């Protein structure tokens, strides 16, 4: 379910990249795209950012195939990490103070952590993680979250 926008304004929808299989969205990424469609439709005219090095083109193609106007889609194809997804998206959405960010539920704590660190206002839409991918993705995420937290602490100490 997309978080409501109280003042009636539109928010951009940012869909974070994930693994591809043979050039097409893998299971977890497809779940993100499926979860993003209601948010995209509830924000008519607002930009849709697909972000991820290698994933952005496949994500754009999937969205267009599923009825999203290609003119709304902005591709960010340089990011190789969650932090870069958000930093590079900020460059593209500098005039937007808040975004809807779509990712899988296992990934939302790390996205929220990086958004907090940068001072970005985000509303999360959490896609389900495919059952067969849960052990791998959740295990990987524990270490990635710890790594991100340590990087943020280090950045704040250095600042």
UniProtKB/TrEMBL annotation:
Top-level taxon of origin: Bacteria
Domain DUF218: start-end pairs: 13-135
Entries under CDD domains matching the protein: YdcF-like (cd06259)
PANTHER family in alphabetical order: ENVELOPE BIOGENESIS FACTOR ELYC, INNER MEMBRANE PROTEIN, PROBABLE PERMEASE
Name this polypeptide is given: YdcF family protein
Gene source species: Corynebacterium marambiense
